[in-house]
User: What shape does this take?
Amino acid sequence: MATFEVQVEALTSLDIDGSSAPTQTELSQFLTDGAKEILNALPRSKQSLFTTSNNLNGSSPNFTVLGSEIFSVTRDDGTINQPCRIVRPELSGRIRDADDMMAATATDPAYYITNNILSVVPEPTNAQNAHVHTLNYPTVAFGDSTIAKFPDDAEYLVPIYGAIKSLQNLLASKSSNTDITTALTAINTELDETQAVCDLINTQVDDAVTQLGESATQVDTDVDTALTAINTAADKINAAVALANSEFDLAVISANSSNEDTELAASHVQVGNGFLSEANASANEAQAFAGEVNARMSQVSGYGQVVSGLLNAAQGYANEIQAKINIAQAYGNEVQARLAADASEYGKYEKQQAKLQADYDKGIQALR
Assistant: This one.
């Protein structure tokens, strides 16, 4: 006969081993749990065929119930095993009182259960043992093919139960696909890095705006001031030249007069030369301001180069963002594909689990 592992694999199409869900160890537990559930589902008259005796003596006078179904309790009176009557825990004192009408004796023993502990009165000894008969829950291993002391007509339900739990185990593992979790983590990583790069772009653009503001300040303030000063100097030059021309004209008149007043002519020439000196000074001043304008314009050009460099850097970061978004999108596609595959596989196993559950429920009903 095929082992229970082979039967479960045939029912589920799973390859059960020690490395993936469900493991062979888990399958053994499923089979053991299934055998226990099936025995509990049997009518009591049939359960009594599959009991085991737990012996109590002077070394172990009490029995820990732990949810065990108690079928009967007996105590050896030295000749035969006498059946023990059950009493309520609060009457435990009375059955120990030899003068009480409820007193337990070797030929009329009693037992009670309190705090999950079964106690027999009179207390068992090594010479006069007590016996607690409970349902025999077997331990079933994945490599077994039969179960001792188990109803033959119910044994086929054990691998069905194991198959149901194995599929449930597999379906539960599908909800925690590590590949999907890894891909989602990678997406978050790329998006977090993208945010950091966006911050770098903002920094570059902000710096570019600052440089442009500096450039505008140079044009709007220093250049405008210098140009105004050049215009003022030009006006001074024009005024001084006009005055110098007037003086030179007067000098000519004085020199050509009938009196030939050379002294007066020399005086006008001297004054005219003074005005020319003023005009020359104004011209030098205008030239100085023109030089400042040229310097400011060169500085503005420098700002433009800095701005261009900052914008190029921002463009580089933008390209990096696009690359990271593409990577995140690829991971997203991977997640989508894995989810679709898992959903398809999940649906297949879920349907098989439902069919097996229906067969199992039908079998349990037939046993009752």
